[in-house]
Amino acid sequence: MKRAILAALGLATSLAVPAAAEGIKVGLLLPFSGVYASLGNEIETGFNLGLEQFGAETGVTFEVVREDTEVKPPVALGKAKKLILQDQVDVMVGIVSSGVLGAVRDMVHGASVPLIVANAGNDEATGASCSPFITRMSFSNGQINRPMGTWMAEKGIKKVFTLAPDYAAGRQMIDAFTETFTAAGGEIVGQEFTPFQKTQDFGPYLAQAKASGADAVYVFYAGGEAISFVKQYDSFGLKAELPLYGSGFLTSPLYVNAQGEAAEGVITALHYAPTIDSEANGVFVAAFTEETGRAPSEFAVQGYDAARALIEATKTGANDRASLANALRQVSFDGPRGKLAIDPATNNIIQPVYVYETVAGEGGLTQKILAQLPAEADPVNGCEMAPVSN
Ligand code: PHB
């Protein structure tokens, strides 16, 4: 399905912007089915809102072609190929799963097509497998989880049991947490990886956590798996005895109300919460709430900022694959999550990380920010960034 979004018709001549390109064709590659379908839909909503809100700053017309990855790496690879070769898109936006990002990386790099990553945190895509064509406007798996290891150890937590789905994101998030938690004197007393997209009953793993002697449990789950995990954790009676921590996707505003009371008191870290008190976030929350009737999640802001980054790139006159790739790497702005910039050494985003607790609020569950941790660039992790010639 194609959807044309016309931005700022007629404004181009009155603004001091370089000559507008005829139009930019965007391939939106997201899961619209499978365990991360709601994440894909949320990123798309944020992306369209960003185009509407910032489109007036450029004279460019955007045409969007959307494709469903189904959260399946081989399907996603076929869809990426179609967008690149058949639709001849100028830029791709999206990708939710680290596994899918790993699968399409070589095709994107080999075809020299810029990709704005709007979710997938795969550390390698901005590490050893980095590419001047891959720019991340979301987060990296290490970036979100490293600060939480140190923070929890500082809070006096000594023994932790970890759980995550068995695929790249789960492994990388838990590794990053483990590294800083143990460096700060903590001990991992047990670790399990659950079959991704296949685990319905977390009971056996929860029994292991209970018997492990841990003071707390630290997990990564997202989407449908996060909803069932948090509910089962509570109904298993573990919450009172073993506090639950994790990366903030666990209790995303996108599905926290489906978790209900089970999510109350869970403490997590993330690069965004709709309760961030800033002018840019206020504008975003108001616009998103007006459109959807609910607060935006981290997935929404990633789509919104991906659109803004694309618009910033076109404002420099970039209008083809190579010039867009170069311009995207230089984007920086003050957005809903705070000041963000792209690290030229890796093309990963640099942004603050927030620790938040899910608490009962007036209109349902909400996010109480406990700490804002400083923005840090990821380690280069073997990235050797090659230049792009325009
Ligand atoms: C990932 O696979 O990188 C991933 C998926 C869902 C999230 C976060 C990371 O919420």
TrEMBL record:
UniProt-listed InterPro entries: BCAA_transport, Leu-bd, Peripla_BP_I
Family matches, as SUPFAM superfamilies: Periplasmic binding protein-like I (SSF53822)
Listed GO biological process terms: amino acid transport
Signal peptide region: 1-19
Name of the protein: Amino acid/amide ABC transporter substrate-binding protein, HAAT family
Pfam families assigned: Peripla_BP_6
Keyword check for Cell membrane: no
Domain Leucine-binding protein: 24-359
Taxonomic lineage of the native organism: Bacteria, Pseudomonadati, Pseudomonadota, Alphaproteobacteria, Rhodobacterales
Key words, A-Z: Amino-acid transport, Signal, Transport
Family that this chain belongs to: Belongs to the leucine-binding protein family.
